[in-house]
Amino acid sequence: MKYLNISIIYLTINTIILLTGCKTNKQVPNAIYENNYSALTSSDLNTISKTTKKLSKEQAINIALENNPGYKSSQYKADAARAEYYKELSSLSPTAAVGAGIGNNRSGAGISANYQISPNKLTNTLAAKSKAKEVQLQSENYKRKLVQKVTEENNQLQKNKMTINIYKDDERFQEEMLQETINKYKAGKASKADVLNFEIQALKAMDKSVQANRDYKTNSYKLASTMGITSARLPKNVETKSTTINNSTEKLHDIDYYLNLAIDNRPDLKAQRAALQASRYELLSAAAKLSPDINLGTNNRGLYANAKMNIQGGSKVANIYSESNRKDIQEEELYKKWLEVVSKVKTQYAKLISAQKQKAILLQTIQKAKQRRNLIQQKYNDNKVDLAELNQAQNNYINSLNSYKKAEIDIADAQAGLNSACGI
Predict the structure, then answer these.
(1) What residues contact 422, with CB distance under 8 A and at least 6 apart?
(2) CA torsion angle for 409, 411, 415, 421 (degrees, to 10)?
(3) SS3 for 285?
(4) pTM of model > 0.90
(5) What is the pLDDT of residues 327-347, one digit of tens each?
(6) 148/152 Cα distance (integer angstroms)
(7) In 187-266, where does DSSP find H-type helix?
(8) What are the residue ranges in the chain where pLDDT is below 70?
């Protein structure tokens, strides 16, 4: 008599459901399998819509969440861990068989069912469930860090653009002073050295501007790579959108508010808790192997039951000791992660407060530096101060501007860092 094992059918159906339920993300570019970059074709490119001219931070984040290979990989890992859990779960279902046969002038039909009661199967399933939760939370944590990374890389491009504008303004100032000094030189009121000074200062400003442009380009490559753009380069017709950076100086909540948010929200902390729970189930599974397996079933003859136990006490006890140590390791890892979360929140909180204070101070500094530069410029034009004093005043003003713009970006980075540290 030929029997059909019903559990196989159930497993097949579950597998089909799992596979059809998985994400259908874009395939990786074919060029990555080749030995040269020239193999990259337009069909391989993950890029930005041709209609996009200004790339906002929000658009960059959305593109990264769609294309970043690290994040996509973490999602596939979560799917795989979930499948492992369902596989363990299916082992808890009973096995049934039905069949019919004919032979030797006899025919017949029958049905049988069998259910094995095994304590370690249940604990293995619970462990697999906790592991699946852990891997899913790790994927959410990857997303948290990816959003922060895109935000900070976009902020850096904003800073590069600010720096470019600062040195272009410096170049214009030096060019204006050069022209005035040339006129004074022709009138015999300035020396050739003064003319050369402003030519040199203008060239220095141009050099700084070139460096800032280089930094913008290289940092744009980083952002494009993080966004999963295949060429690791923003399209030529696309530039990052200049957005108003949130530099609110409103009073922050007490530090405990952010700590409570972090302890409640951080996915990596939740993932470590799930890892600890999995290790507890694995310890129970190891202990359960000391108990017998019980089989219950039915067939044409009626109900039956039997018990089986493999006697390997020494190895089983050693396995319990091993799993107990693994549980202890996970407890220490959870404590380590908890300390890391608390430290990160306090660090980002301190950075944000400091950056806000620095910005307020530097705003006054650039106002006074500009006022002083303008006064000395007028005195220089009236031949009342020497050239060195004007150079120093202009340099102080440019340095103050750079420091102020850096403080603005520091606030934006610290705010993004605090949000990320809190898991929001």
Answers:
(1) 258, 261, 262, 265, 266, 345
(2) 90
(3) helix
(4) no
(5) 999 999 999 999 999 999 999
(6) 6
(7) 192-226, 255-265
(8) 1-26, 42-47, 50-51, 94-119, 242-250, 291-314
